[in-house]
From TrEMBL:
InterPro entries: UCP037692 (IPR017263). This is YheE family protein. It comes from Cytobacillus kochii.
């Protein structure tokens, strides 16, 4: 379960795509960049293989809701 999900634009011009995000998962903080094409670049420790795909799916859903479905 992801908790304390936050994101912010990478650019001053907020209309340009690209966002930094952070969240906690199992007590560990993760940081990354969500690119306009949906690619996720981890800035912190990469989640283990068992969790990474599920976390990416959750991040995509959150970004679609918060950014694209406004």
């Amino acid at each position: 379960m992801i908790s304390h999900f936050q994101f912010q634009s990478l650019y001053e011009n907020k209309e340009l795509p690209g966002w930094k995000f952070s969240f906690f998962h199992h007590g560990k903080k993760y940081l990354g960049i969500y690119h306009h094409d949906g690619k996720i670049e981890w800035l912190s420790t990469v989640p283990d293989q068992n969790h990474e795909d599920k976390l990416k799916s959750h991040i995509h859903e959150l970004m679609l809701y918060h950014v694209y479905d406004r």
